[in-house]
Design brief:
Blueprint: H1 2-17, E1 28-31, E2 33-35, E3 40-43, E4 50-53, E5 61-63, E6 77-82, E7 89-94, E8 100-102, E9 112-116, E10 122-127, E11 130-139, E12 149-159
Antiparallel strand pairs: 1-12, 2-8, 3-4, 5-6, 6-7, 7-8, 9-10, 10-11, 11-12
Length: 160
């Protein structure tokens, strides 16, 4: 809990101290791997509410800590952890298509202490003793035979 509070305090300090975030260069980018939908949609028999089970893979999936935001501002993606590749990595669920997105690039170290910006499609992560901002661009393709495209731009915004 102390680590999460320190992380959030760090983000607040960074946002206040960065008068112009555009001065910080984007240093890395990658195209994310997009997997076919695996969600299961049912209706609760008692309430009639729609229930969506986002994943049906046999790997363990874990939501972000309860008080950290996991939804993009426009509700286009929900972020979660999964151990599909033998270690917990960040994944996303595209709400419009049901597709699963591997957000974590295999070429970089594992990201932790994750939170999603309430006002944008940005994800803030800690890795290698630094705080990074990931700007996520989503292109939903209407052709069901072609996967949507998700690209991440990354920049280091502070040393942890």
């Amino acid at each position: 809990m102390k680590t999460i509070k320190l992380f959030l305090l760090s983000i607040i300090i960074i946002v206040i101290s960065c008068k112009n975030k555009s001065e910080i260069e984007w240093t890395n980018n990658w195209q994310c791997k997009v997997f076919p939908p695996e969600h299961e949609i049912t209706t609760d028999p008692e309430t009639g509410a729609k229930v969506v089970f986002v994943t049906s893979d046999t790997s363990k999936d874990v939501n972000l800590y309860f008080d950290l935001n996991c939804w993009f501002n426009d509700l286009s993606m929900m972020v979660f952890y999964s151990n599909r590749f033998n270690s917990y990595e960040l994944f996303g669920y595209l709400t419009e298509t049901g597709e699963i997105v591997r957000l974590q690039s295999p070429q970089i170290s594992r990201a932790g202490n994750v939170t999603v910006d309430y006002q944008s499609n940005d994800i803030y992560v800690v890795r290698d003793n630094a705080i990074y901002q990931w700007n996520v661009e989503i292109e939903i393709l209407k052709d069901s035979n072609i996967s949507s495209k998700v690209k991440i731009r990354e920049r280091k915004i502070a040393l942890a």
